[in-house]
Specification:
The chain is mainly α. The protein is 66% helix and 5% strand. The protein has 5 helices and 2 strands; from the N terminus they run αααβααβ. Strands 1-2 form a two-stranded antiparallel sheet. The longest helix has 14 residues, at 51-64. The model is unreliable at 1-7 (pLDDT under 50).
């Protein structure tokens, strides 16, 4: 296993994930707004993300059923350390 794969993965708190999930599930939120929300969530915790990647994440979590473990998994894939 390489050093990069051994690095500790950020585990966001359950409360943070639940808050993000609640915001994402609000009616009327389109993919652009969801991407902005995801970007803001990560930026507030010291991570960056491309807008296109955030839109793809929003679509994936919508299709998979927006569970907390699902959101955690998607954020791990998406977050770039700043």
């Amino acid at each position: 296993m390489t050093k990069a794969k051994k690095q500790k993965i950020e585990k966001f708190t359950e409360a943070d994930l639940a808050g993000l999930r609640e915001e994402l599930m609000k009616s009327g939120l389109d993919s652009w707004q969801a991407a902005d929300l995801i970007s803001s969530f990560l930026a507030g915790r010291g991570y960056g993300v491309s807008t296109q990647a955030a839109r793809k994440m929003a679509a994936r979590i919508e299709m998979r059923g927006c569970t907390l473990p699902c959101i955690q998994e998607e954020l791990e894939k998406l977050a770039m350390v700043m």
